[in-house]
Amino acid sequence: MIQRVIRRAILLAICWLIVRTWAVDGLGIPLVISSGSMAPTLLGPHRDAVCADCGLHYTLDSVSNTFRNVAVCPHCGIPNALDNLPELDGEHVLVDRAAFLWRSPRRWEVVAFRSPVDARMICVKRVVGLPGEEVQIRDGDIYINGQLQRKTLKHDIYYTWPTGVEARWGCDRPFRLGADEYFVLGDNSSISDDSRTWSGGAGVPSSLLYGRPFLVHFHARSYQCFGGFFTIPDITQIRLIR
């Protein structure tokens, strides 16, 4: 009986390792969004605010609001102080490691890949340019081979020049991708470090693709009680990534 239990436990451990390594990442060791470059699609460190005027609960990305102590309510436009609001961890995501074994990434798809600048770092961005295409950002939109590409996204994105860093590729003139490269951008365009800014070139080779983030399975939310703030998981924010 004991031997049977041990054998089953070993088999389950092996299956877990196989799934963890080759199928889905983020199950055992969480994959946490660490910046605001993909907000509002994916949140890095953030704060939960409640409008003092209309009572609206809304989430504020901490990274892009580092130097501000107020947030403007998106409903009524009233400024709200951020001084006493705790900073919450970034969202936890699951990544399908096998997504691109049988097909290539599609335009507007969110992908995970190893950074061309530092292969130890896993990045999450959105694909806007496919292999061999000529990509240019113009007036907030993406042009491929001179043709405007209609966005099929939940949130409209106005692509801009990055703030505080040099825009090297695809902004002032078109950039031609190689036969095995992808052009990727963050949804929070002004603060994202992506294909526009990398010093070694804009393209992400397919060899660096890590998988497709498909689910946010943990979102932290703060609640005020007894004069303090408490952080708990918000199951209403479990969602598919699009």
Using the coordinates shown, work out and report the CATH topology of the largest domain: Umud Fragment, subunit A
Ends distance? 47 Å
Q: What share of residues is helical?
A: under 10%
Q: Count the domains.
A: 2
Shape: globular
Largest sheet: number of strands, sense, barrel closure: 9 strands, antiparallel
Give the mean pLDDT. 80
Question: What integer value in Å does the Rg equal?
Answer: 20 Å
Q: Which range does the strand content fall in?
A: 25-35%
What is the H-and-E element order?
Answer: HEEEEEEEEEEEEEEEEEEE
**CATH-derived architecture of the largest domain:** Ribbon
Number of strands: 19
Specify the CATH homologous superfamily of the largest domain.
Answer: Umud Fragment, subunit A
What class would the helix/strand composition place it in? mainly beta
The count of helical stretches stands at: 1
CATH class descriptor name of the largest domain: Mainly Beta
Query: Poorly predicted ranges (pLDDT <50, ≥5 residues)?
Result: 9-22
Task: Write up what this structure looks like.
- The protein has 242 residues and is mainly beta.
- The protein has two domains: 33-90 and 219-240, no CATH class; 92-214, Umud Fragment, subunit A (Ribbon).
- It has one helix spanning 2-23, and strands spanning 24-25, 31-32, 46-50, 57-61, 70-72, 79-81, 92-96, 110-114, 122-129, 134-138, 141-144, 147-148, 175-176, 181-185, 204-205, 209-218, 220-225, 228-233, 239-240.
